[in-house]
Amino acid sequence: TWPPCDHAESVETVRPDCTCLVTACMRDGMAVFSNAEAAQTAKDALLNQWKRWDYRLFAFAIMPDHAHVILAPGRSGRSIGEIVGKWKSFVTHALKQKRIITSSPWERDYDDRVLRSNEREGCGLARMIAYVLENPIRKGFTKDWKDYPFSGCFVDQANSARRTTESPASR
Question: Sheet harboring 111-114: ordered strands across?
Answer without folding.
Answer: 111-114, 20-25, 66-72, 56-63, 151-153
